[in-house]
Amino acid sequence: MSHPQRTTTTITTAASADTLPNPSTASASGDVPMPNKPLHELFRVMSRYQILKTAKSLIVGEACIRHHLNEYRPLERIDILVLTDASPMTLRNILRFDGSKYFSESGALGCAIKMTLPSFLPIICTIETIAPRQLERKTEDYRLQICCQAFRGVHQLQYVPEEGLPFLGLPSIILMEVLLPPEPTVSINASLVWKLAQRLDPNSEWEDWQRNALEKKLTRLVDLGGREERAREQWCEALRLHNDELADGVEDQPADRVEKGPIYLSPNLLFSNLMSWPSWCVGFCVMTLATVLLYFLFFRKTPAPRNTHNTWTEWAFVIVSGLYL
């Protein structure tokens, strides 16, 4: 069986532990939906180890998206982000040698491990970590800003209710999909963002940096809509961008294309950019003063008067010299 390609997962705002109330997919006990059983088993194993139960963890990626869209399909992949100083390889090895025998080598790149439960197909689990010290300093890096907010409202694993799961919050997932696509060369999945936005609370509010970042992507979202063309106003309403216009100084980012065509420069614009009006005035005064000084230094003589023709020639030479200066 082929497994989905690994993507890099990133985080946004705080997530709370909650369950998926869907009786039609509940297990025999009636309290855990069958598609979520692997998640519960994974966190049950993680909670056995001190290094994991005292850390904060979040479910991100496809499993989190399906949770917010209420899509109850069997999981093929689980992505976990852990706030800890331990390395991803350390956490992976803890699971790999757990006594449950659920985990084995995956053969995938990175810190991935394969989980196999009875009556379930094998599931690829990836673990990424972020050190607490990385979130202590101010940064303009979207990933770190998102992670900082995400873990702010999350409890350590030992305090998460046994029936609950620490999914990443819906606003966080939207920010992640818009600002941090899985790969640099992958365009935003506008269709997915639209579906997620439909589930936002009508009273949702963004922080200033989040709203400005989303506003910069509006043109891109409109252009990437494909067959489902949606106007800019529709995106603003769906994403709860309540401002009537873009924030001052914010410029939309266009879609992934380059506008081709000749570029024309106006002569007036060129000269106005080279020197401002006050600069021209100062330059003229300096040039005049230099001309007078040159005249008195080199051409002013006391002997008998000379003819007018030679005088005008000397003055012309002085003026031309001043212009070159």
TrEMBL record:
<feature type="transmembrane region" description="Helical">
    <location>
        <begin position="277"/>
        <end position="298"/>
    </location>
</feature>
<feature type="region of interest" description="Disordered">
    <location>
        <begin position="1"/>
        <end position="33"/>
    </location>
</feature>
<keyword id="KW-0812">Transmembrane</keyword>
<feature type="compositionally biased region" description="Low complexity">
    <location>
        <begin position="7"/>
        <end position="19"/>
    </location>
</feature>
<keyword id="KW-1133">Transmembrane helix</keyword>
<protein>
    <submittedName>
        <fullName>Uncharacterized protein</fullName>
    </submittedName>
</protein>
<keyword id="KW-0472">Membrane</keyword>
